Amino acid sequence: MDESAVRDLLREVEDPDLGDDVVSLGLVNDVSVEGDAAAVSLALGAPYSPHETEIADRVREVLGEHGVEVDLSARVDDDLAADEQVLPNVENVIAVASGKGGVGKSTVAVNLAAGLSKLGARVGLFDADVYGPNVPRMVDAEEVPRATDDETMIPPEQFGVKLMSMAFLVGEDDPVIWRGPMVHKVLTQLWEDVEWGHLDYMVVDLPPGTGDAQLTLLQSVPVTGAVIVTTPQEVAIDDARKGLRMFGKHDTPVLGIAENMATFKCPDCGGEHDIFGRGGGAAFAEDNDMPFLGSIPLDPSVRTGGDEGRPIVLDEDSDTGDAFRVLTENVANNVGVIRRRQQR
Checking CA distances to 231, which of 9, 28, 145, 176 falls within 20 to 30 Å? Predict the structure, then answer.
C-alpha cells in the first residue's frame, strides 16, 4: 500500500462537525508509508476533545481494517513563529467571561479546568480576576508559586491543573486598588514570567465586565475562544450581550454560552424551581447564533465544593458534576472546530 492508497482510505473518515471527510477538509498534514505501517499526521488542535478523539479512533479503525498499522500524530500550524508568541508552549487559551458579577463565572472556570484535566489534558488555570481573585480557595491550593534563580515563577498544581492567581501575590484581606496601566503590567508579567510548561489548554478566569483586564488579554494573548457565562435572568443576559460584543470587536471566537444557576431541584420536596428564570441562556445563544454549551443547575453542592476546594466536576456520582462534564466536552469540541477550520 502506498501514500495515495492510504489517503483514499482516509476519505472514509468524516469530521463530525465540519460535514466532510478529513482529506477533503485538508486535515491530513502528512502521510508516509513503509511496508504495512503508515505514519499519519492530522490537523487536530483540541487534545482529548471527544470529537477529535473520535476522528483519531476512526482513522485507526479504517486503516486497521486494511491491515495497516498506524502511527498517528497531530499538529496544527500557527501563523506566528514560536519566538513571536507570548505563550509558545500553550496550544489553546480559553477565556471565561461574564458581563456582570455574581453569575458563577469562577465556578465555571475552575470546573472547566478540572474537567479538562480529568479528560487527560495538560491544563493551566490563570486567575486574572485582579480585583477579586478566589480561585486558590476554590481548589484548596495551599502551596504558593516558587521563585527560580532567573526570577520566574513555578506555579503550584492542584487536581492536575497548574495555577496562577493574584491571590498568591497579595495579602488575603488586602484590597487591590489598581488603575488601568498597573492592571496591564501585572497581568502581562504574570503570564510571561510563569513557567507554565507545555499546556494543551490554559483557562483564564477574567474579571466580570469589559474593562482593562479583558482588553489586556485580548490585545496581548492569542485567545482561541471565549466562554460567556450567564444566568437565565434577563438582567444577566443583558450584560452577557455586552461581553459578546466585546469579543466580536476583537475578532475573538466565542466557543459558546454557559447557563449557570438554572433550575433548582429541592432536596426536600423534590420539586423544581426556576429561581432565576428558565432557558434564558439557551435563548440568548440561539438569538445570537452561538453554541449553547449547557445548563448548570442551582445546586448547594456546587457552593460546598467551592468553599471546600474540590470542584464538583470531579464527583462521578453527581448530576451537577455530569452537567459540568458535558459543558467541558462541548467546550473542547468547539475548540477543535475552531482549530480545524483554521487549517482549511
Answer: 176
What DSSP string runs through 149-185?
TTS-EEPPEETTEEEEEGGGTS-TT------HHHHHH
* Cα of 122 vs its chain's centroid, Å: 11
CATH 3.40.50.300 domain span(s) along the chain: 82-342
CA atoms of 311 and 303, how far apart (whole Å): 9
Burial of 309 (0-12, 13-18, 19+ CB in 10 A): middle
Fold of 82-342: Rossmann fold (3.40.50)
Strand partners, 208: none
Q: Note the pLDDT tens digit of each residue in 22-67.
A: 999 999 999 999 999 999 999 999 999 999 999 999 999 999 999 9
DSSP state of 66: T
CA dist., res. 221 & res. 208, Å (int): 18
3-74 in CATH: which number? 3.30.300.130
What Rg value do the Cα atoms of the chain yield, rounded?
A: 21
Q: Where are the beta strands (DSSP E) in 35-147?
A: 37-42, 69-74, 90-98, 123-127, 146-147
Cell of 134: 478566589
Going from the C-alpha of 76 to that of each of 15, 55, 188, 233, 331, the distances in angstroms are 16, 15, 26, 39, 18
Question: pLDDT tens digits for 283-324?
Answer: 989 999 999 999 998 888 888 888 888 999 999 999 899 999
